[in-house]
Design goal:
The chain is mainly alpha-helical. It has 6 helices and no strands. The longest helix has 55 residues.
Length: 158
Amino acid sequence: MAQESKVSAAIDATQLAAIKEKLAGLRTDLAGVLTINLTGKDRKEILKMGDKTLAFVEKALEFANQNPALVPGYINLDEANKDFALAKALSDIQKEFTPMVRGMEDTKMVAGSEAYNAMLLFYGFLKEANRSNQAGVQAICDELQKRFPGRSSRSATK
């Protein structure tokens, strides 16, 4: 009985090169923007603006812009407007990428799982063939066994 395959697709070298070129273009386009590299601690401690707080910030900025006399001198309203516009634009871009990234992760996971499972079955078949002293199998089994460090082969423990 043949193995079931949930994914049967391919990205050829031409497609991969085109995708990488487009991604390089995006990296170039965003190079002046994506300049921050937060640590795990920074990510945990920083105030976060999600969809719910976005509406608050947008409305508060609207009021601040309409009433500049009420804005304390220690708040740089121009910078706050600029930061909000950037956060909103990046959020829009991220919303486009998120489903693609999730799809890539899921498809990669399934494709990798299917390939790994198929080769584990192949390896199991080879080990059985090796136990039957089939010619040419020992060297392949020995090479593949190296890919499982810390696991001794059954023939070594006999």
